[in-house]
Design a protein that fits this description.
alpha+beta; globular; eight-stranded mixed beta sheet; disordered C terminus; binds 2-oxoglutaric acid
């Protein structure tokens, strides 16, 4: 059974989740490590974003070989999406139905620490099993009881199905560290949640997962927002590109109430403007997210 939540008609009308819904979402997410939200965005909004993405990021939709994007598998890239129209929209980074749930999971001082897209190209293979980042302290017992420190919100820009490849998750694996990924994956059941246009999904940075092969003729872009506790900085996924790019003129479009979400980008002159140290200057450059050893920090 999928871990999923459907907001009530009243919640959708008021765009405000009831406290018990927030609590239910928190409990489900905490035990399963992922949670699907049905019918959050109007399909027309998703269509507009999809068209804009195909136009503005066309080169990433035709080749995965890009100097400024992270290769996260065969014919699959992770691209930073500039926070500018039509993507500079609070509905995308601070959705009123989702934000209270994110705050319950990550605390009220959470930040948006990354904003981008994962594109799987036609013909891409299954990704390697991986965690986006694993043990914070390298201690099985300690790490297994820690609460979520970062998560991704996936917003598919089209329906995601068997043909273009769902993301596969191993529920509960975010707190299990006693075996290599492939061994864990063999002994735990997995889910392949199909995503309708307008739905979205959150998953814990630590859950083991993989993006499945794209057997369709079209690229399959998923927008992703990374939310984290305010102190967290991702040491492995942004060696190639900055996690967030906010053009100078776009800051004032961010409503005052959401500015704290961007605190890390605002306070760090190297973030938010598309400048980060080159891979060779980065002390973490040896860590591999994809293609490293099975038990490396990330897959
Ligand atoms: O492409 C996908 O379905 C998911 C990609 C992903 O989760 C990742 O690269 O970490």
């Amino acid at each position: 059974m999928l871990a999923q939540l459907q907001f009530s008609p009243e919640e959708k009308l008021t765009q405000l989740p009831q406290p018990e819904t927030v609590e239910q979402a928190f409990q489900l997410f905490t035990s399963e490590g992922y949670l699907l939200f049905q019918e959050v965005f109007e399909p027309e909004i998703i269509d507009t974003l999809h068209q804009a993405f195909l136009a503005l990021y066309s080169r990433y939709c035709t080749s995965a070989d890009q100097a400024d994007a992270l290769l996260v598998g065969n014919k699959r890239v992770m691209v930073t999406v500039r926070l500018e129209p039509p993507f500079n929209d609070p509905l995308l980074y601070a959705h009123p139905l989702i934000l209270p749930i994110l705050k319950r999971i990550l605390g009220p001082e959470l930040i948006l620490s990354g904003f981008g897209a994962v594109v799987s190209l036609p013909g891409s293979a299954d990704q390697q099993i991986h965690r986006d980042l694993s043990h914070l302290f390298g201690d099985d017992l300690l790490d297994a009881i820690l609460p979520c420190y970062a998560l991704n919100l996936l917003i598919p820009l089209l329906e995601v199905n068997e043909e273009n490849g769902m993301t596969r998750f191993w529920p509960g694996s975010h707190t299990v560290y006693d075996a290599p990924y492939t061994e864990l994956a063999k002994r735990m059941p997995y889910v392949d949640p199909p995503l309708t246009k307008g739905s979205c999904l959150i998953f814990d940075y630590r859950i083991i997962h993989l993006g499945r092969a794209n057997r369709s003729a079209a690229p399959r872009p998923l927008l992703y927002n990374t939310y984290s506790r305010a102190w967290f900085r991702d040491p492995v996924n942004y060696l190639q590109q900055p996690p967030l790019v906010i053009p100078a003129a776009e800051w004032e479009r961010i409503p005052a109430e959401y500015q704290p979400l961007f605190m890390a980008a605002k306070n760090n002159p190297l973030l938010g403007r598309g400048k980060i140290p080159q891979v060779a200057d980065n002390p973490q450059a040896g860590l591999q997210r994809v293609g490293g050893s099975e038990d490396a920090n990330a897959g």
